[in-house]
Amino acid sequence: MNEVPSADSLIGEVESLGERLARARAAVGRVIFGQETVVERTFITLLSGGHLLLVGVPGLGKTKLVETLGTVMGLDARRVQFTPDLMPADILGSEVLEEGQDGRRAFRFIEGPVFTQLLMADEINRASPRTQSALLQSMQERKVAVGGRILPLPEPFHVLATQNPIEQEGTYPLPEAQLDRFLLEVEMDYPDEAAEREMLLATTGAAEARAEPAMTARELMAAQALIRRIPVGEGVVDAILRLVRGARPGVEGALAEAQAHLAWGPGPRAAQALMLACRARAVLDGRLAPSVEDVLELAEPVLRHRMALSFAARADGVRLAEVIAALKASVG
């Protein structure tokens, strides 16, 4: 078990953070309509210090969400549109040869868009595998190797990538190693009628609501450190382990549905992601410790991109959601 912090100091810190997060969520809600679950899980990702993969059809506000988060959270945000002709240097940066006033020539490194605090990788699956892999080191290690040098990225550093589930011609599916770097995979659906009506009236008038800063990058980093101090009960730890280990075919303790339908299951990083995400969700709700309900609520966005159906299961029409539902039922 983790060392339990002083209860009084922890309560005070969580309450203070909860007030700031409430203001930040309200600021996002004035601009983003009808996506409460997506916004919550995006906040969970940022509080956990991770990266997010957003999946949704065009026009749902994915780009707007990232821009709004950058303003509300006080982060330097940049956007890269991924295309088949995008090169690694277009993301990481490149060295150019310059001649000084004294006639001497020297290479100068020009930073790419990855040198930011919040990077939106728009339609990441449209870039080639070579370009996709350029993000691997930066996502995991928060640094970039260029020209024989190791350059640290700004802190905090988060990647919010998007994928379009339609028009898959000419796309390159993300490899498992890169998918595992995303803390959550969140599906963005159409807003309900009431939210769409509100959005229609708010965005087509003479004045449109604009995001207002509610936190700073330093406060976000302090919040991330606080999340890791939140105590976790043995029941929650056991639920996480049963859920993740039960999804590994060929391993002792695997669920029957996993053995029958999965080609491969989640690794230890899934359990780590679920632990951090549960802590972050508890703090967002103003609670001092996560519960098994948090584990069940976040199981799908944590596991969905870390497991794959076997060929036979796909041929039989089995859906990944069905296997995850069976895993959740086995936990309670």
TrEMBL record:
SUPFAM superfamilies attached to this UniProt entry: P-loop containing nucleoside triphosphate hydrolases
Protein's name according to its UniProt entry: MoxR family ATPase
Gene3D superfamilies: Magnesium chelatase subunit I, C-Terminal domain (1.10.8.80), P-loop containing nucleotide triphosphate hydrolases (3.40.50.300)
Residue intervals of the AAA+ ATPase domain: 48-192
Pfam families for this protein: AAA_3, AAA_lid_2
Species per Swiss-Prot/TrEMBL record: Sabulicella glaciei
